[in-house]
Amino acid sequence: LLAGRVYASLQQRAEAGDAKGLYGEVGRVHREVKFLVLTRVEETADGRFAPMLESWRERETKPVKRRIGEVLERLRCASPSSSPR
Fold it and tell me: What is the phi/psi pair of residue 43, to 5°?
């Protein structure tokens, strides 16, 4: 339930392009919930999440930073601009 709420908030922020105060919202959330949110973001393959994830990663713990990096890499590989023509 909490992962769904955090994801919905992250999605709204991504659509608005607003990363300000993001860590204040997700910083106190349990690590497993963060991993669930990141898995959901990864499944969407939506590049709009990249700026949000970059902002979030700056203040996270090493395991979460690593996972955010993995998700960012997958988002970059999934973006149309990274595909060879």
Answer: -65, -30
